[in-house]
Amino acid sequence: MEEQAAQLTQAIDSILAGAGSLLPELLLAIFFLLLVTLDLFKSKAIKRLLPWLAATGLFATLAIQLLGGYTSEGVQFLNLLRSDGLARYSGLLFSAAGIFTILLSLQNKRLEKLKEGRGEYYALILMLVLGLNLMAKSVNLLMVFIAIEVVSIASYILTLTLKEEKRAVEAGLKYVLYGTLSAGVMLYGMSFFYGLTGSLDYTLVSFWRSLLDASPLMVTVAAILIFAGFLFKISAAPFHFWTPDVYQGAPMPVVALFSTGPKMAGIIVIMRFVAAFADASISGAFSDILLFLGVAALATLVVGNFTALWQRTPRRLMAFSSVSHAGFLLMALLAFGSEYMTSVLFYMTVLLFMNFGLFLYLQVAEEKWGVQTLEDFKGLGPKAPYAGIVVLLYLLSLTGLPPLGGFMGKLLVFSNVWEAYSLTGQTMLLVLLVTGILLTGVALFYYIKIPYYLFLKRNQSAENLVISLSNKLLLGFFALPLLVLFFKPDLLLHWIERILAQTL
């Protein structure tokens, strides 16, 4: 009895010692419960307060993560979660994505007119950000699965926010079916790994060394099953089929969030998963797994870029653009031997501003100008020159052209892949590098479609296009970092390096 009491006391002490590392997540959970509770009241004043309350929770979380110092060095939460520099910087990105989503939602007419579920909508954004934080901190297979499911459940419901629309219901059902299947397959693969190693902590070198005694074929199959869930979350080929339908049916702010938050969290999970492969002895033993990742990156780049060429609607074009960026991020993760982690985080930061800025413009065009297809952009550039010039900056940055941050992001990724190829001589890295460079040229052909219709096609309508001051300010806010990070990328790179070099 005394022994059991001692074990219980030790477990409680361990939980309390690591609880500080969960302060951002606890804060998000408190605001989530507060929003759900306040949504029960019918007062219009309270209803108007809900989005600002959600933004306050996210700002508070952002401030805590920015300042750091809320847990002692090296402390983990029961060996399930690790609050290191990678988790801290990722949390900053996720909090920023949540704030940007709320800002876009406040500009969305249909979301502002929601009579039911208004509080639930903003509460689910907080839940999704909470799940993203847990994904970035997870070092345990079971914890990763739980975190991914938290994100998935919130994503399913957010997709169905405008449930009176047929395409939203169709997108939500497809998302649920594909997501459930991928989750089951991923969990099946995790059970194999646990059976082979007796451990769930995949960040330990001993975890991978214990797999050396198992059948290589079984290990490879189990890893592929696990990656099926990871690749689904980042919309990488061949698990990207849900992406265009969900992008077509979900509200625009939700689409902007999906194109950044879950994708970034999935990349962080994969980054932790393959970190042990930096050891040459381990990477050599699991070359089949690395080959699978290389082929997945290659397929994602090809499918995303070439399929985007044939799209006729802005939403579906951006869906396959998102797929192609997942390919670039996957390619960057294979650059072992280089400082690829800093480059990946830089790329994700730039992607955050590019995507939210472009989706804000598409929201304005869709709601105020009735744009549904690419041809509907005809002649709108001269009628709204400020917005037209800013969206041109976003699209050129997404392509990876100077003088914008997207160019620096891709340059860093390509440099790291070349450095890794020089060190290892792996043919796959060279193939990925050449393919990525060539497909950057292909990307220009579909990104340039919107400016082509905006400025080079005539519009017979004499109607003036009006953009609110808040939308103009937001468009400029998202564009400014893209210019700054081209001319002074070291400002962000040095900051990322300092955060990665320390624990919280």
Please tell me about this protein's structure.
It is built from 24 helices and two strands. By secondary structure, it is an all-alpha fold. It has a domain at 286-504. It has a two-stranded antiparallel ribbon with strand order 1-2. Helix 2 packs antiparallel against helix 3, helix 4 packs across helix 24 and helix 11 (242-249) packs across helix 16. It is globular, with a radius of gyration of 23 Å.
Measured distance between first and last alpha carbons: 38 Å
Compressed to H and E, one letter per element, the order equals HHHEEHHHHHHHHHHHHHHHHHHHHH
Number of helices: 24
Number of strands: 2
**Inertia-based shape:** globular
The Rg value, from CA coordinates, equals 23 Å
Strand order of the largest sheet: 1-2
Q: Point out poorly predicted stretches.
A: none
Summary of the model, kept short:
The chain is mostly helical and 504 residues long. It has helices at residues 2-19, 23-38, 44-67, 85-106, 109-112, 118-137, 141-159, 166-197, 205-210, 216-233, 242-249, 252-258, 261-273, 280-285, 287-308, 314-333, 340-368, 380-383, 385-399, 405-424, 427-447, 449-456, 469-487, 489-500, and strands at residues 76-77, 81-82.
Describe this protein with a few key phrases:
76% helix; 24 helices; 504 residues; mainly alpha; two-stranded antiparallel sheet; 1% strand
SSE layout:
Layout: H1 2-19, H2 23-38, H3 44-67, E1 76-77, E2 81-82, H4 85-106, H5 109-112, H6 118-137, H7 141-159, H8 166-197, H9 205-210, H10 216-233, H11 242-249, H12 252-258, H13 261-273, H14 280-285, H15 287-308, H16 314-333, H17 340-368, H18 380-383, H19 385-399, H20 405-424, H21 427-447, H22 449-456, H23 469-487, H24 489-500
Antiparallel strand pairs: 1-2
Helix pairs in contact: 2-3, 2-6, 3-4, 3-6, 4-6, 4-12, 4-13, 4-17, 4-24, 6-7, 6-13, 7-8, 8-10, 8-11, 10-13, 11-16, 12-17, 13-16, 15-16, 15-21, 16-17, 16-20, 16-21, 17-19, 17-20, 17-23, 17-24, 19-21, 19-22, 19-23, 20-21, 20-23, 23-24
